[in-house]
Write a structure and sequence with these properties.
This protein is mainly α and 383 residues long. 73% of the residues lie in helices and 0% in strands.
Amino acid sequence: MITDGLLMLGVLLALSCALIVLERTTGWKLFKYVPGMVLMYLLCAALNSLGVFGQDDATRAPIAAVKDVVLPAMILLFLFGCDLRRIIKLGPRLLLTYAVSAASLFVAMVGVFLVFQSALHPEAWKVLGALLASWTGGSANMVAVQDILQAPENIFGYALITDTLIYSIWLTVAFSSVAVSGRFDRFTKARSTHLTDHGDDLETEQSPITVQSLATVVFGSIFVSVVATWIGGLLPELGDVVNATTWTIVIVSVLGLVIAQTPLGRIGGSTEIATLMLFVVIGQIASGSDFSALTQAPLYLLIGLLVVLVHLAIMVVYAKLTRTDLFSIAVSSTANIGGIASAPVVASAFNRQLVPVGVLMALMGSFLGTFLGLAAAQIMSAL
């Protein structure tokens, strides 16, 4: 059993390093079905279930302290690519489609929760709020909401498993939709000529990664995280959702959005360092999980499936009423549910010139996902 907090942190860092390297260099089919982040969760949860990690405060305190610093820094860095000037260039039709997509997931999550509420864990609203944060933003938003709401680590595993499986199914649907785009557009009487206006002018390049850029990204983000945490602790708590951690996330999110509008937002290494931080945070959460509580996972999978089916129905009705093309529907939906990793890929399946559209839609979610997840959690907690 590991009872030294620093040794436990070393194990989490080693696992993060190994999985990131393997996922990006080996080409193993395993990673196509189970992302490295989910494997990180499963491995750490398995080690904890087997009694490898000590449970005393002395062992856990260093890990918790690291997460408290790394999480806000990670959110800050992930937002560096969210350039509002490029997002505005998407035009009102694409922005409206993205907004309706996010809103439909929000409504579906709250509605399905209401149906299954009596069969769920008393704190399931926290976990489903985190899941919605992922489906309107990304994994970073999910762990941010989990940290703010202090969702039980055992049932947080349900959110990760549901997120991974439903995402895989949804991505398959999105790719398959390319084959029926012509028939769908005729059904909705879509006008897709506006899409040709979005392409090369939306592309951006990140600066090369250098020692200077890494120093700025790592040390700068940690400094901002510490200061934001200090300020957040001075601000008042409001209800069950708005606490010191909420204020900290709000501060770094707004600051990250501001930095994204400057040349500093294109600094090399910000996305890569944020990804490393994400693995560490996932490992810390998983190290408090226990596989013995996974018996309810099928119920959460059913909830996730119903949420995306309601989302699909709403988007089809919206497309028919507004004459929206399938590209806009598929990419906005994938940008929400899949995030930055998949939206550009789905966009390229329709038209390679429109890849930046998928990127920018996903970046909007990076900023909004946390707040949408918290808002849904607040509503579900009151039901």
